[in-house]
Amino acid sequence: MTYITSELDRFYDLNLNCATHRAYIENPQGMTCPHHHEDYEIYFLISGNRKYFISNTIYTLQPNQVVIFKPNIPHQVTVNLNVPYERQLVYVTPQLFSEIIDNNPSLKSIFDFQLFNLSDSDFAKALDIISEINKELERNDEYSQCMIKNLLGALLMFICRHNDTSNLVLNKSDLRIQSVINFILEHYSEHITLSDCAKIACMHYNTFSAVFQKETAIGFKDFLIRIRIDKGCELLETTDYSITKIAELTGFCTATHFTSTFKNLLNISPKEYRSRHQIEKLERKGNKSSIIL
Fold first, then answer.
1. Is 293 domain-assigned?
2. DSSP-derived pairing of the beta strands 85-92 and 57-61
3. Average of pLDDT values for 25-36?
C-alpha cells in the first residue's frame, strides 16, 4: 500500500502499517494550501525551524520538538523561513495506531498536547527507537509487525513521559495573531471587521492584514469565511435548524449569502450537504447493525 503526499510529492510504503522518512531540506518552502494524510504522521524536527498552522493554531517548531498529526487534519507550513532543516517522519496507519492506544491505556491522553518538547538527550533516544523501527522494516520477517507495534508504543510513551512544556518559546507576532484567531472562533456569529481584529492584535490594519496572511497562509477575510462555513457544516450535521437560522448563527446577513458562499467553497449546497450526511449516517448505522447480527 503506497501513498503520495502533497507536501513534497514523496512516496511512503505502508506494507507493515508503518513507514519512516528522514531528510535534510536545503531550500525550504512554505505550502500554498493545507494538506492532510490518511494516516497518523509523527514529525520530529532535528535542526532548523518550521512554522505550522494546525487546527487554527500557530506552532513555531524548534529542534527537539515533535508534532503528531491526526489523519485528515489539514496542516501546512505557513512561511518560508529560508533556513535549512532536517526532520524525521514516522507514518502509522489508523488501524495500527488504534491498536497501540488500546494496548497502552496511558496513551489515551496523548492528544491533550499538539506539540511535544524533548531535551537533547531524550530526543536522541527517541531517534534511536526509530532506528530500531527501521531495522524491523528492513528485516520484514514474521516477527517484524509485532516488534514495530511494540516499538511504536514505546516511542509514543517515551515522548509523553519526557514532554517538557516549560521550555516552549512563543513568538510575539504568533501570540497576537493567535489571540485574533481565538476571538474569531468565539465570536464568528457576530459582525467582525479587519479593523476590529487589528486593534485586538495591537497593529495597524495594513500591517495586521499582511502578518495574518504570513502566519496562517490564508487571508483574513477567507479565514473568517472558512470558520463560519465550518460551523455551518457542524449545525447542518447536528441540528434540524433551517438554513435561515444557520445563516444567522454563523454570521451571514441572509440565507442566500450563506448558501452561495457555502456552495462556492464546498461545491455543494447546504441542503445537499445535510442530505448526504444523513444518508452516510444511516449507512454507518446499517453497517454496525449488520456486524452485530
1. no
2. unpaired
3. 70
**What's the length of the chain?**
293
Residue 238 belongs to some domain of the structure: yes
Q: How confident is the model at residue 252, as a pLDDT?
A: 97
Position 80 scores a pLDDT of 55
Domain boundary among 167, 191, 226: 167
Looking at the structure, tell me whether residues 140 and 259 fall in a common domain: no
- Structural domain includes residue 8: yes
Distance, in Å, from the CA atom of 155 to the CA atom of 284, rounded to the nearest integer, reads 33
Sequence-ordered list of residues with C-beta below 8 angstroms from that of 149, at least 6 positions apart, any chain:
96, 99, 100, 103
Strands 75-77 and 50-54: antiparallel
pLDDT value, residue 134: 96
pLDDT category of residue 3 using cuts at 50, 70 and 90: very low
Domain that holds residue 232: 172-281
Same domain flag for 106 and 182:
no
- DSSP-derived 3-state class of residue 81: coil
Over 60: is that where the pLDDT of 97 sits? Answer: yes
CB distance 26 to 84 below 8 Å: yes
Boundary of a domain, candidates 120, 152, 167: 167
Closest CA to 236 of 276, 191, 190: 276
* Sheet with strand 65-69: strands edge to edge: 18-25, 85-92, 40-47, 65-69, 115-117
